[in-house]
Write a structure and sequence with these properties.
Elements lengths: L4 E4 L3 H12 L4 E5 L12 E2 L1 H9 L3 H4 L4 E2 L1 E4 L2 E4 L10 E3 L2 H14 L3 E4 L2 E7 L4 E6 L5 E6 L1 E4 L6 H6 L5 E2 L4 E8 L6 E6 L2 E7 L5 E7 L13 H12 L7 E9 L2 E3 L4 E2 L2 E3 L5 E2 L6 H22 L8 H26 L5 H10 L3 H12 L23 E5 L2 E4 L9 E5 L7 H9 L5 E5 L1 E4 L23 E4 L5 E4 L3 H13 L49 E4 L5 H12 L3 E6 L3 H13 L3 E6 L7 H17 L4 E6 L14 H22 L3 E10 L12 H21 L5 E7 L12 H8 L10 H12 L10 E4 L7
Helix pairs in contact: 1-4, 1-7, 7-8, 11-12, 13-14, 13-19, 15-16, 16-17
């Protein structure tokens, strides 16, 4: 196949889906018919639930600071959208063009292949794939095959038509004319009713006014093209008596109360999302929000399917969940359109509904329905109040001086086991169960600081408000933010939920009691050790302790020697490891292959150090690989291990060699820490490899020892600088360590070197790796700016 998923349509819904698929590791091609992005902003409103989803993916900052109107409406009747338990109540005014720009940059940055000017002309389904026939910008025919194809191509969906999906419902009986007009001065109107119709006007910051007008009793016109501006101006004059005909129309269209919904959101290997799956009147700004929420629901499930870990029925749950939501949304929109566009015949109904909106319970219920905050997946009428609901907002303490928010835990697109009582002894078993699926479920151990947005007391359905997570203990959350297990149900129910939503364990045979210590100071299970020493002091990596599950680590110079041992140890403890090398691609790949062979996760990045642009090149590769594997660019651990030795007497040391030693051993580590600070999560770890030569003399390595002294200063001063973020920085000083060089094949030389250690042997790379692993763990949280002697007692004299 050419790719794993083809998405047809590069509007906001298609791009949101593409980003979600990439977070899940799926390869995706987005085919868009248009060659240039539209300048029309059909939708201008993002609701609270959509804002939460964008927050979960780290996209809100990219939107800037959009204006927010706390007032909503139901059929034109004022409706307070506050008090919903969301940190983003109200209607956020973001032009659709801006939403699309943000999602385009995000999806493309994650590696989605976006092809404009590619129009879908044919669709062929096979047992094992689907083939799309596309017309390219050059007019040529291109065939692409994929495991699945998703139509996000709007209400006139070619995908829906070619797939033969039934689209039952009703056509419009009433319509609103709409135009964006420059150069007019009229009052802003919020659903102002006149004897002959309804008028809406709002002036944007750029001076353009959007007008909408409906004439009571006028049936919808069956249109094959957009209305002329003259028709809009005439209708506006008829209803309001004002003349806007002298303005400059930027965009004109008409929309009605069409109500249609695809009979199936999935038919075999073809799926539908957004307006391709449902068409509705865009009253209250619900259409775009509904589609974006479709995409978030579908993305992780479809990625799981193509990546091979989806449990039975997971992909079908997309139709089951979102078809029901769409049907309910279309129903509330139809009710609103009757109230909004009706004349005197609906006056009594408007009066009754207006009275009901004065009651807090009724207002919260309708606010939850319109904003999507009341959705429960899967729908549950019994059990815990949070089951099926979205994860409530809360601020979390993850360690000394370190905090995060519930939204941030979902940033990578993984599921999350959120352990809110990490000191509870029985929770070690819960964390261990989730750790068996570490490639798809993150374990986050934290304690609550605040449990809801200031001033909010309850969500629209009783969930999501202040205090909703208090006393829960732990929750299992899907990648789309919906809770599928609560701590009160016990470990057995957790195993069931994990199987239902995240499939079988990915680490078959891993110990079910593996300790996953919290990041809030909970002790690991007593007696659990991942590493056992054999007679030759090598590491047995057949078991893992899991202390670094869901962590990411960069180890420089990790293709051999101490660096390789550190990479292997951190991976054995559960971290995803970036294996850096400057040369020796085969050795680096061998390190990666060895880690993967024992169930670990790693990828290699090449970047020679000590040359111009070295750190930028390194982090370009690191971030690209992290996006591929986790969907984000965050690091938890940085180990500065790469270095070179001199091996010359003071007299033989040249300025060129001195400069090279300084560039690789001192300058590069400094700027790696500087650059990594942008990627490091709060509570992260930096470990710099120094040398025992900073404490005893060896004149043949005077320049090398100087560089390692600089490394210790890097650790000391960066430790103070980064302490406010809970990041620790320490240096580890190995002594004589078997790095595989020929001298260690000489028994007499090894014996002579062994006498320098208090233990009478030379060090093994694993000896140092174990010290680094400790400093990378939560157990070292109270150590920073320290020099750790890992010379085996060589410095004792």
């Amino acid at each position: 196949m050419d790719t794993q998923v083809i998405v047809v349509g590069a509007g906001p819904v298609g791009l949101m889906l593409a980003g979600e698929l990439r977070l899940g590791g799926a390869r995706v091609v987005v085919a868009e018919r248009a060659t240039e992005p539209s300048t029309e902003s059909r939708a201008t409103t993002l609701h609270a639930r959509t804002m939460e989803l964008l927050d979960q993916r780290g996209l809100l900052d990219r939107l800037g600071e959009p204006p927010n109107d706390p007032r909503g409406h139901f059929g034109g009747l004022p409706l307070d959208l506050g008090g919903t338990g969301s940190p983003y109540p109200g209607q956020w005014k973001v032009p659709q063009t801006r939403t699309r720009e943000v999602l385009l940059d995000w999806a493309a940055g994650l590696g989605a292949d976006i092809r404009t000017g590619h129009e879908l002309t044919g669709l062929e389904r096979r047992d094992d794939r689907v083939e799309a026939v596309l017309r390219t910008p050059e007019g040529e025919t291109l065939r692409l095959s994929a495991a699945y194809l998703v139509g996000c191509d709007g209400e006139n969906s070619a995908v829906r038509r070619l797939a033969g999906v039934a689209f039952p419902g009703t056509d419009a009986t009433r319509e609103l004319l709409r135009a964006d007009v420059a150069g007019i001065e009229i009052p802003d109107r919020r659903f102002e009713r006149f004897p002959g119709g309804l008028a809406i006007a709002g002036r944007r910051p750029d001076g353009v006014t959007r007008v909408m007008v409906h004439r009571f009793g006028r049936p919808a016109v069956r249109r094959t093209e957009d209305p002329a501006f003259a028709e809009v101006a005439a209708a506006w004059r008829e209803v309001t008596g004002e003349d806007i005909g002298g303005g400059t129309p930027l965009w004109v269209n008409a929309f009605g109360n069409t109500r249609r919904q695809a009979a199936q959101y999935r038919t075999g290997r073809v799926l539908l999302a957004g307006d391709a799956a449902h068409v509705q009147m865009p009253v209250g700004g619900q259409a775009l929000n509904l589609g974006l929420q479709d995409a978030v629901n579908l993305g992780w499930k479809l990625a799981a399917e193509v990546k091979g870990w989806a449990p039975p029925g997971l992909l079908d749950s997309y139709h089951e969940e979102r078809h029901a939501v769409g049907r309910r949304t279309l129903g509330n929109i139809e009710a609103q359109s009757l109230v909004l566009l009706g004349g005197e015949e609906v006056a009594d109904a408007r009066s009754v509904i207006g009275e009901l909106l004065g009651y807090d319970g009724a207002a919260r219920h309708l606010a939850g329905m319109i904003t999507g905050l009341d959705i429960r997946h899967p729908a549950a009428d019994d059990g815990h109040r949070l089951l099926g609901a979205r994860l409530p907002f809360a601020e979390l303490r993850t360690g000394p001086g370190a905090s995060t928010r519930t939204a941030d835990t979902l940033r990578s697109g993984h599921g999350v086991l959120l352990d809110l009582d990490p000191d509870a002894p029985e929770h070690a078993e819960l964390r261990a169960e989730a750790a068996l699926r570490a490639d798809r479920v993150r374990v986050v151990a934290a304690t609550l600081t605040t449990t809801g947005p200031a001033g909010d007391s309850a969500g629209p359905d009783g969930s999501g408000g202040t205090g909703e997570l208090a006393g829960v203990g732990a929750v299992l959350v899907r990648p789309d933010g919906h809770i599928v297990w609560c701590g009160e149900e016990g470990a057995g129910a957790l195993r069931t939920a994990l199987h239902r939503w995240f499939g079988a364990p990915s680490s078959a045979g891993a110990p079910s009691s593996a300790a996953v210590p919290s990041s809030a100071g909970a002790p690991s299970s007593a007696g659990s050790r991942a590493f056992h020493r054999s007679a030759d002091h090598t590491v047995n990596r057949s078991t893992t302790m899991g202390t670094l599950v869901n962590k990411t680590a960069l180890v420089t110079g990790s293709s051999r020697g101490i660096g390789r041992a550190v990479a292997e140890r951190l991976a054995a403890d559960g971290a995803l490891v970036v294996v850096h090398y400057g040369r020796g691609k085969e050795a680096a790949q061998d390190t990666v292959d060895g880690i993967r062979a024992t169930g670990g996760r790693a990828f290699a990045v090449r970047a020679p150090l000590g040359v111009p642009g070295d750190v930028d090149a390194l982090f370009d590769g690191v971030e690209e690989g992290l996006k591929e594997h986790t969907g984000g660019i965050e690091l938890d651990i940085v180990v500065n291990n790469a270095g070179i030795m001199g091996g010359l007497t003071p007299e033989e040391t040249t300025p060129e060699l001195f400069d090279k030693l300084m560039a690789v051993n001192a300058k590069a580590p400094f700027f790696i820490v500087q650059r990594a600070a942008k990627n490091l999560r709060d509570g992260g770890r930096v470990i710099n490899i120094s040398s025992g030569l900073t404490r005893f003399a060896n004149p043949e390595e005077i320049a090398y020892a100087m560089t390692k002294g600089a490394v210790e200063m890097i650790s000391l001063h960066w430790a103070r600088h980064l302490a406010a973020r809970g990041i620790t920085v320490n240096s580890v000083a190995p002594g004589i360590t078997n790095n595989g060089s020929p001298v260690f094949d000489n028994p007499q030389a090894v014996q002579a070197m062994a006498q320098l250690s208090a233990f009478g042997r030379v060090g093994e790379p694993s000896d140092v790796a174990d010290v680094v692993a400790f400093l990378a763990s939560e157990q070292s949280r109270w150590i920073t700016g320290a020099f750790i002697d890992a010379t085996g007692g060589t410095l004792l004299g």
